[in-house]
Every structure is written in structure tokens, then in C-alpha cells.
Amino acid sequence: MTARKFDRLIFSVIGCAVIATAMASLVNPRAGLVASPRLSFDLENAEQAHLNLGPDVGVIAGMETASGLPAAQLKQASDLAKRFQDMGYHLESVKDGNQAVPRVFLARLPSDLHAMPEVALKKSVFFQTMLPLILQENERIARDRRRLMALKASMVLGGRLPARDRLWLSVLADRYKVKNNNIDSLLRRVDIIPPSLAMAQAAEESGWGTSRFAQSGNAVYGQWTTADSEGLIPEDREEGKDHKIKAFDNLAQSVAAYMRNLNTHRAYRDLRRERAKLRAAGKAVDGEVLAGSLQKYSERGPEYVESIRTIINANGLRELDDARLVVDKIDDDQSV
Question: At what angle do helices 195-206 and 119-156 cross, to 10 degrees?
Fold first, then answer.
């Protein structure tokens, strides 16, 4: 067997393994990651919420929270608000740049959000729940983007990518629906979604976490799916239509699917184009600016865009675009 044929054989074998792993990650975006334990406030869905605790979910079972309540009891909005308070997790401090966001990832939203009498507190609990999940997914995307940029720099200098990088590039291109592993095309798609935009859309699409879709299927962003897929049937679905609202095992999957949708679907080419322009001009990726490219996200068109921008501005969400999660040393050490 020639060296070329042997190299091709090894490449194929490894490729199959990598692609299989990648397919698993599409079902659970965090499958296979190993990291230090995080807080979970939902025992039933802790493992599905990719809290990286491994198979022994019992690690959480005996954990007492700072509020004195077992983690299993923190499914009520008022208890969750108290837990955030006791942790010192305050959105205003995050906005001021005085606090990093704790790695607290909920599997589900509190079931009684709709019953909270204080509107401001309900909004705060909702944003405090969604922000760590959004930042976590952006972390993953940013890692992939940095690696892409490093590979591009290597190729510009005339370097030949090693087999593992070519395999990684191939899997990433497949995930983001880019042909020929084109790095420039990938860089337009593999990029973050500003937290201000992601949180405003989550609030709009889920009724601040109170909608049937958000509560029953963790469908925070109201993404449609086909009739033969798992999902929830809209009660007001027009006659003759057969779409469903895509359901998820946990909130993290919903956030990941939403970002992948904006980064791959042809309906959001304008958003990706506008984001690339901001990057090229050395400007921040601005959620309010990108919202103008979302007329196709809803049948309401311009009215929908205006609603998203109103939520961003009324709640000072642009101040959260620079928010960062508390540094996770293990994840940091393992990043590529």
C-alpha cells in the first residue's frame, strides 16, 4: 500500500469517527465536554442541560444553596429570584462591568413566572436565566471562530493544514451548511449573536418565558419545524398548515438551535452580511443594528423589528453585550 493510499485510509477512518461525534453534538451541543461542576436548579433535567456533571447527577442531589433551600425546590420564580440575590448575581452589576455572569444554567424556566406580581422582578429573573445560556453558546461559537481565523492565517502563509484540522473544518462546514470547506464563507456564519438581540427575541417569542411553548417544550424562540418532527401544535394554526413549534429537552438546546438558525438559514443572509460589515469596520456586533435584518423572522415584519428594538432599549440590554461568564479554568485550558 502506498503512503498516499494509507494516508487516505487513515483519514477516512478518523473522519467517520469525528463526523459521528459531530452528529451527536447536534443532538446535544455539549455532548462529550468535560468541565468542572456547575450549579443546576433542576434535578430532573440536569444531565440533559449539559451541566457537564457526568452520569452522576447525584453530585447535585445533596447540594444546599446559599438560600438554605435544596436545589430541587428552586423551581419557583420567587425562590429562584432569592437564590440569584443570595449569589450576588445582579444584572445592574453586570451592565456596569463590575461582575462576571455566574455559570448557572437552568434546564427549564420557572413554571410560575406568569404569576409573579412584580413585572420588573419577572423580567429580571427571565433575563438572569437566559443570559448565562446565551453567553455559554457564544463562548463555543467564539472558540470555533478563533480556530478558523488561525487556520486561515496559516493557509495565507502557505502552510498545509494537518489532517485533524482538515477533518475539523469539514465537520464545521457541514454543521454550518457551507460547501467546499470555504473558510471565508464559514467566518461569515461562525460568529456570535449579541446577547441583547438573543434576550430580546427570547422575551418577545416566549412572552417573557410564560408561553405554552416555552413552558412545555423549552421553545423560547418559537422556531417552526415540519409536521413529522417532534414539536407542539399551535392552537391558532391556520387551516391547511401543518407546521409545529420545535420542542427541546432543555433551554440550552433551544438557544443553540436559535443561533444556528440565524447563522445558517438563507432568510437571515442580511443579518450575517450586516454583522460582517460591522466586523470589517472594527465596530461592535450591535444587537439593535442587527435587529433590522430580522423582518423575515416573523410575519409581522417591520413591526416585529420595532418590537425587538423597543425591548432592547427599554431594558438596557445593549449594556449586556459585553457581559462575560465567570472564567472556567478547565474549559479555558481545554479551549483550542
Answer: 140
Are 175 and 26 in contact, with CB atoms under 8 Å apart? yes
The answer to whether the CB of 91 falls within 8 A of the CB of 124 is yes
Can you tell me which residue has the cell 462591568?
A: 97
For the whole model, what pTM was predicted? 0.77
pLDDT-above-90 percentage for the chain: 57
**Intra-chain end-to-end CA distance of the chain, in Å:** 34
Looking at residue 85, its amino acid is Q
pLDDT digits (tens, 9 = 90+) for 260-296: 999 999 999 999 999 999 999 999 999 999 999 999 9
* DSSP letters spanning 92-131: HHHHTTS-PBP-B--SS--TTGGG-S-HHHHHHHHHHHHH
Cell numbers standing for residue 323:
457581559
Whether the Cβ atoms of residue 19 and residue 169 lie closer than 8 Å to each other: no
Rounded Cα gap, residues 292 and 306, in angstroms: 8
